């Protein structure tokens, strides 16, 4: 899930470029070039900004997983009072509100697959991917642990709120691939294209999540997000079929991001596009 990615991704890429530069060094008072007498330091502002993004990803993922999975737990433990359409609405709404809350800070990925997909398209620095993924999995695990403590016996302890395939693994992989592709295609369209109405990005992405949960939820749990599946699995110690929710969403989101870049408008002639090493880089510059 991602908010208006132009500003957030641009900031992240800017950080990545600045991080590649050598740290600034201050020579000693006598002006000598002796490296042993120099003091090197990094830009503290960049470090603070990056930590703010990490905290935003942890909190955003935490709140998203807590609300969505809480709806599942309450529905199971109270005989269906939330209802399945209600669960779909909760997932869509919490994604939407969290995008509007921290999208301008971290990009509101909340999803390792989305982060990786942005990185493959050159819209997010690879060196920051591990930190983002760790933050997202940590947020999901903390939310799952909180649910287990809050609802206790008769709730989260007895009702697994993770994702498990209802059918075959092949069916689950195919469906998770499709809904992850669908999600990332929409994210790419509303959050990375300057011609899109950026203010509606949260609404569009949230609606896509709700639609995906509505038709894929009964079959796979409609994860679309490795962190969403890993957190509950870690807390409950149930890893059956978890590989499906790691592999399929990553492949699906990467495919969705590349697919949108293939149809992204460009006024460059085909001859010029094919001369470049990367079509995605050309489309991004246009």
TrEMBL record:
The keyword Membrane applies. The chain crosses the membrane at residues 54-76, 82-102, 132-151, 171-191, 203-222, 242-263. Signal peptide: none annotated. Residues 1-40 are annotated as: Disordered. The keyword Magnesium does not apply. Residues 17-37 have a biased composition (Basic and acidic residues). Keywords: Membrane, Repeat, Transmembrane, Transmembrane helix, Transport. It is found in: Membrane. Its main location: membrane. Gene3D superfamilies: Glycerol uptake facilitator protein. One of its GO terms (cellular component) is membrane. One of its GO terms (molecular function) is channel activity. It is a multi-pass membrane protein. PANTHER family: AQUAPORIN NIP1-2 (PTHR45724:SF51), AQUAPORIN NIP2-1 (PTHR45724). Belongs to the MIP/aquaporin (TC 1.A.8) family. This is Uncharacterized protein.
């Amino acid at each position: 899930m991602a908010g208006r990615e132009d500003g957030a991704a641009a900031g992240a890429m800017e950080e990545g470029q600045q991080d590649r530069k050598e740290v600034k060094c201050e020579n000693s008072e006598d002006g000598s070039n002796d490296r042993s007498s120099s003091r090197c330091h990094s830009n503290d502002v960049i470090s603070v900004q990056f930590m703010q993004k990490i905290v935003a990803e942890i909190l955003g993922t935490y709140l998203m997983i807590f609300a969505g999975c809480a709806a599942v737990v309450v529905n199971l433990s109270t005989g269906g009072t939330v209802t399945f359409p209600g669960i779909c609405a909760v997932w869509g709404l919490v994604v939407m509100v969290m995008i509007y809350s921290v999208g301008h800070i971290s990009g509101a990925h909340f999803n390792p697959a989305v982060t990786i997909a942005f990185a493959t398209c050159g819209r997010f620095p690879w060196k920051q991917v591990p930190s983002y993924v760790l933050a997202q999995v940590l947020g999901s695990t903390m939310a799952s642990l909180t649910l287990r403590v809050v609802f206790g016996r008769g709730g989260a302890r007895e009702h697994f709120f993770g994702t498990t395939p209802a059918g075959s693994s092949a069916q689950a992989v195919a469906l998770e691939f499709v809904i992850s592709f669908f999600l990332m295609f929409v994210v790419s369209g509303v959050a990375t294209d300057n011609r899109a109405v950026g203010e509606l990005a949260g609404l569009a992405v949230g609606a896509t999540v709700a639609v995906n949960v509505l038709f894929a939820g009964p079959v796979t749990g409609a994860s679309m997000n490795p962190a969403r599946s890993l957190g509950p699995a870690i807390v409950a110690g149930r890893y059956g079929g978890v590989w499906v929710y790691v592999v399929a969403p990553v492949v699906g989101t990467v495919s969705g991001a590349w697919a949108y870049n293939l149809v992204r408008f460009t006024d460059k002639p085909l001859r010029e596009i094919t001369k470049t090493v990367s079509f995605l880089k050309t489309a991004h510059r246009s």
